[in-house]
Specification:
Blueprint (H helix, E strand, L loop, with lengths): L4 H42 L5 H25 L1 H11 L5 H16 L6 H27 L1 H10 L1 H7 L2 H14 L3 H17 L3 H22 L1 H4 L4
Length: about 230
């Protein structure tokens, strides 16, 4: 017997989300310790005295670069990734792997992001992408010498990797713009203007998200019947 949307939401609230938050907190805490683990292992394996001052200074410089993304990405991508996916995206590669995998899987399965079905599908998609990603990274590490040789011998191979992220974002943009071309055109115009003003990448993302979300809510509320497709 199929459940109603309300029943699905209640099931998630009572059984799914408490477990996700419990495991997610443990997962994210473990990630924090894993960030410093390589430095400790190098010291133990090679018998080197750890220079914690230099280590913390390097960690601080990296943190300053990544803090804007740590703050903006979780709530920018939450609607697509869901609660469990949002915990797992801290493993990395959010915009170029986790988000596309969740969005494409939801589209293929015919479920809407932000719904109970979308939450579960995103959970499966993100978890699967992490496992596959680990296997690919392992294979690439083993074949690393050959890949480096190919990149040095054939420059077009290295140049192709520079276009991976723009291609992924372009595909996601096209996928969601087909739902409502007016929103897609508006965000494209905003993006072009922000690039012209020379703002940093994370600021462009944040501004586009805030403006796009605000306009979408206002237009949806005013012209819901004429502009939004019926579920």
């Amino acid at each position: 017997m199929s459940l109603s949307e309300r029943e699905k939401e209640q099931l998630l609230e009572k059984e799914y989300y408490p477990y996700v938050h419990k495991v997610g907190r443990v997962f994210c805490t473990a990630l924090i310790f894993c960030n410093i683990l390589p430095v400790i292992l190098v010291g133990l394996v090679y018998g080197l005295a750890l220079d914690w001052k230099a280590t913390l200074a390097a960690w601080g410089m990296i943190a300053m670069l990544l803090i804007p993304f740590y703050v903006t990405e979780p709530w920018m991508y939450y609607a697509v990734l869901g609660t469990a996916g949002n915990y797992m995206q801290w493993a990395g590669n959010t915009s170029n792997c986790r988000l596309p995998c969740a969005a494409i899987t939801q589209s293929v399965m015919g479920v809407k992001e932000g719904t109970p079905d979308g939450e579960i599908i995103a959970n499966i998609a993100v978890a699967t992408s992490i496992v596959v990603n680990m296997l690919i990274v392992l294979a690439a590490s083993v074949a690393g010498f050959g890949l480096v040789w190919l990149a040095q011998t054939y420059p077009f191979i290295k140049a192709a990797f520079d276009n991976i992220l723009p291609a992924i974002f372009g595909a996601i943009y096209a996928q969601f713009s087909l739902r409502n071309p007016a929103y897609g055109a508006m965000l494209l115009a905003i993006g072009i203007a922000l690039v012209w003003f020379g703002l940093p990448y994370w600021q462009r993302l944040l501004i586009m998200y805030v403006v796009g979300l605000g306009v979408a809510f206002s237009v949806y509320k005013k012209w819901k019947k004429t502009l939004m497709r019926k579920e």
